[in-house]
Design a protein that fits this description.
By secondary structure, this protein is of the alpha/beta class. It has a single domain, classed as Ribonucleoside hydrolase-like (Inosine-uridine Nucleoside N-ribohydrolase, Chain A). 33% of the residues lie in helices and 19% in strands. It is built from 13 helices and 11 strands. The strands form 2 sheets. It has a 9-stranded mixed sheet with strand order 3-2-1-4-5-6-11-9-10, sandwiched between helices. Strands 7-8 form a two-stranded antiparallel ribbon. Helix 1 runs parallel beside helix 12 and helix 9 runs parallel beside helix 13. It is globular. It binds beta-D-ribofuranose and calcium ion. The site of beta-D-ribofuranose has 16 residues, from helix 1 and helix 6.
Length: 313
Amino acid sequence: MTRQRIILDCDPGRDDALAIAMALASPDELDVLGVTTVAGNVPLDLTQRNARLICELCGHPEVKVFAGAESPLKLAGVTAEHVHGGSGLEGMEVRQPAMPLQDRNAIDFIVETLETSADDEITLVATGPLTNLALAFAGRPEILPKIRRIVLMGGACREGGNVTPSAEFNIHVDPDAAHAVFACRRPLVVINIDVTNRVLATPAHADRLLNAGARPARELSRLLKPAGGARVEEFGPSGVALHDPCTIAWLLKPGLFETKLVNVSIETKGDLTLGATVVDFRGITGRQPNALWACEAASAEIIELLIDRIARL
Ligand code: BDR
Ligand code: CA
């Protein structure tokens, strides 16, 4: 397998943290060119700090971490402390990392990396609101061919959203950015909550990770245990949905997912449906397919992959 050159755009966030760790634990397959952060689960000053904290914990203080957009393109920001805690990493001991934040803005880093790359060279992995990507693409059509694909966590269809009955968090927070990204005409892989809601870690998984590796595995195992705001009614008393690590699992083993090539359009106006991902499974709109939409995920294997990789750190 050729090493995939990736930029990881994220809003850590408990599950984003696991995605970062899983990527850094997979150097044979993934070359992490940079971690770009955006406001989402918690404000930007915390997402960028958390990204650095996780890189450092994983033994990779050399990774370049950038801060990007502080708020969505048009709407007021929405955060999710009720899920991720006030720090964004509830359950972990949070300290100030020693590794620096890069001076350059995340959006400039994305643009410059694409500008200096070959066609089809860079994979963008997005596990937060899509604001940074949309700002990087705005008015820069010449950089788009450099993108090999965009693998993102976001969207909901089959069973509705997790923020409103229509919308999933990452799309809901910045539907205008999502609209721009879904219209960019580069290959998209959409790992949505229809599937990630079923990739549930249990306390038994947390204990295995706790005992499987060195300090990174021990500390990160706390993120496999429910936080205060866990949705007990949905996932049971002990399940933690591993939304964001599924993007990395797809990069490592796409065969763990069943996908369908469909048109996905973003609702940017509806009072009740803002941020909905409208998925044309039957091809009835005549709109061009623009995304591989995840329909099924091999949950047990994905969790094993996560434990196996993070235990290597
Ligand atoms: C997504 O929203 C965030 O809270 C998680 O980090 C994940 O990216 C799930 O809807
Ligand atoms: Ca996230």
